[in-house]
Amino acid sequence: MMEKLLNPDSVAVIGASRTPGKVGHELVANLIESQFEGKIIPINPSADEVLGLPCFPDLTSCGTTIDLSVISIPYKYVMSSVRASIEAGAKAIVIITAGFKEMSEEGAKTEREIADYCKARDVSLLGPNCLGLINTHHKMNASFAKQLPKPGGISVISQSGALCTAILDWAAARHLGLAKLISMGNKADLSETNFLRTFADDEETKVIVGYLESVDSGNEFIKAAEQATSQKPVVIFKSGTTQAGVKAASSHTGSLAGADTAYGAAFTRAGVIRAETFEAMFDYATAFAMQPLPKGDRVAIITNAGGPGIMAADAVENCGLTVQPLEGSTATALAQKLPEAASVGNPIDVLGDADPDRYVAAVNAAQDDPEINAIVVILTPQAMTKPAETARAIADCNRNEKPILVSFMGGQDVMPGRDELVAHNLPDYPAPERAVAALKAMHDYAEWLRRPPRVVTRFPVNRRRVERIIHRHIRTEQLQVGEAAAKDVLRAYDFNVQPGALAISGQNAVEVADKTGYPVAMKIASPDIIHKSDIGGVKLNLANADAVIDAYDLMMLRMSQRAPNANIEGVYVERMCQKGREVILGMTRDAQFGPMLMFGLGGIFVEVMKDVTFHIAPITYDEAMKMLESTKSFSLLKGVRGHASVDIAAIATSLQRISQLVTDFPQIIEMDINPFIVSEAGRESVAADARITLAE
To answer: Is 276 exposed, middle or buried (0-12, 13-18, 19+ CB in 10 A)?
Structure first.
């Protein structure tokens, strides 16, 4: 579909100009300077030639068909130029012109008309309001960005034209090659999804890098990204991460899922490496483009200064990798080749007066050691340091079996070394922490590639029972499903729920308590009261009938005072649960990516620390376990300081059941099981409270 966009044989520039500095002039100049080997056709009714090329008043006068049309003319003439381009044979169109949906509703309408017109004729449309595109391997700079990078293996897609120019400048400063650069602009037709699919199969692209502000279709993005990441790394810097403009959510899960959470969950699901900063985006891309992936998490650090070595060791441990102790033959070999004062542990300190030979000895020892999976090399400029020679020596001994990331710290003194590193395909970073962060990204991607096949379990459940409950609530416009009905839904999906029922009087509550067995818990039942305990709507450990009646009367008095307008359905009475670890399981449905599952520990961990994790449904058992392991409080579940481990598998399975439930019923837009009480293995976990919100 995009062959004529990326590899055209002829390019028409509509709006070509003889005036330097104008976009139409720069477009023609860049095509010429990039040594484009196809035909360049300037179009301008006021010029006979542009930059030595014959210029035509319109496309019908040029006497040839065109593959690609690049349009840079005033907004009001764009639609007619699109029609003329397609009549002249164009199968791809790039609209540089701005003033469309980013400016007005009228502009948005015109943009939709252009997109529909192109789509109906199977013509690829890039833009409008974009910088253009570059394909270095095709010698084509069809953009108004001045710099043309050398050919390389990194392809870039960006929603920001300004970011494209910054990326080109960055690549030039680092002497780094790019394959393709795409400025998507308003994404009237072609979007990140199209380019992810195209670059996934592009032999010239080794790494895909993206700057995104939004995604047009969440599900399609996940499919395209997963297809791409199964073949090559995808690194994305996503801006717009705040919660500004997000509607207030009623559930814990909804309130904790900010505007950016869904993107993070989607990236995790698809194996996309997320860069938190523009700087990190290219730190990661450089490492992926230049070095092999690590086969494990064990890192060797080589340094000529103690402090930077400690900095690197801290960074390795803090990001979850391992500073692997060097023992046996590796330590012996190093001791024979390094001075007595050198450290042959890890970090390997080759001392401040280290020459290139010491670095080579240390790098070779780390490459020989089967327990080492990756190497970080640090150099600080001492009086006797030889940065350029050391860089060449490291490059010469690199076997390309394990990733080697280098940090030449400093400025002017180490610049010759940095130039040598880039020339020899060794990624260099100004600080050890950045090298380690890039290594962590490589490790995470390698782990994702090694993941087991995705198998989503389907549990035997009672769907008809849930259908009846949901249908009844929607028919009666009760979109807040109270605890009693919510627990009926959970029972249908085989959750363990304590015996209980709704009571509408004190005596009725006693009857329920007598039937379920004491002690009991009592909770107010009202679709208008979400956080029951905040207004005295929860009573626990009621041991007898008198306590139940007293609690009922007091609760009703408090509700009349604290929630006088609430619709009170009664109280929900159930047998008290055994003690255990309280966690929260939930779901909120994102408009783009669909149901997002949430897990976190209860109490302060969710209320104050917000130590929660999200994942896009449906999920596998392994993905559910990854959710648990990614929280800071996971160690509490495994058991610490004399506390027994809880049944972690039960939590993972329950997340899978929620995943199935919300996938089966898209009417559910939010739900919480809070708390979900989990005990030691062998004791059944209990859904102690639950609530569900339905779509209108």
So the answer is: exposed
327: left (phi > 0), else alpha (psi -120 to 50), else beta? beta
Give backbone dihedrals phi and psi of 173, rounded to 5 degrees, phi first: -65, -30
Q: Do 514 and 443 share a structural domain?
A: no
Phi-psi region of 379 (alpha: psi -120 to 50; beta: other; left: phi over 0): beta
Q: Is 626 inside any structural domain?
A: yes
400 is a domain residue: yes
Q: Is residue 248 part of a domain?
A: no
- pLDDT by residue (tens digit) across 300-349? 999 999 999 999 999 999 999 999 998 888 999 999 999 999 999 899 99
| Claim to verify: residue 337 and residue 297 sit in the same structural domain | yes
536: left (phi over 0), alpha (psi -120 to 50) or beta: left
Q: Distance between CA atoms of 232 and 273, rounded to whole angstroms?
A: 11
- pLDDT given at position 591: 87
Q: Is the domain of 540 the same as that of 678?
A: no
The reply to whether 298 and 442 lie within a common domain is yes
22: Cβ contacts below 8 Å, ≥ 6 apart: none
CATH of the domain at 509: 3.30.1490.20
Token representation of residue 678: 């989990």
Q: Are 100 and 75 in contact (CB under 8 A)?
A: yes
Co-location of 328 and 418 in the same domain = yes
Q: What is the DSSP letter of 159?
A: S
383 Cα distance to chain centroid: 44
Residues 6+ positions from 475 with CB-CB distance below 8 Å: none
Confidence of residue 244 (pLDDT cuts 50, 70, 90): very low
**pLDDT (tens digit per residue) in 520-574:** 999 999 988 878 888 999 999 999 999 999 999 999 999 999 999 999 999 999 9
- Out of 449, 472, 501, a domain closes at 449
Here the tokens at position 74 are 């005033």
Do residues 583 and 687 lie in contact, with contact meaning Cβ atoms separated by under 8 Å? no
What is the per-residue pLDDT for 341?
92
Say if residue 38's pLDDT is above 80: yes
- Per DSSP, the three-state class of 21 is coil
Nearest to 395 by CA among 319, 290, 496: 290
In this structure, the answer to whether residues 632 and 546 fall within a common structural domain is no
Whether residue 379 contacts residue 426, with contact meaning beta carbons closer than 8 Å, is answered with no
Domain termination site, one of 414, 449, 484: 449
Tokens representing residue 90 in the block: 């164009």
Distances (CA, A) of 656 to 456, 538, 625: 8, 29, 10
Domain that holds residue 543: 463-575
Q: For residue 343, give the CATH number of its domain.
A: 3.40.50.261
What was the pLDDT predicted at 49? Answer: 96
Predicted confidence at residue 422, as pLDDT, reads 87
The answer as to whether 195 is a domain residue is no
- Say yes or no: 312 and 432 in one domain: yes
Q: Which helix (H) or strand (E) holds 435?
A: helix 432-449
Claim to verify: residue 430 and residue 508 sit in the same structural domain? no
Instruction: Write down how long the chain is.
Output: 696
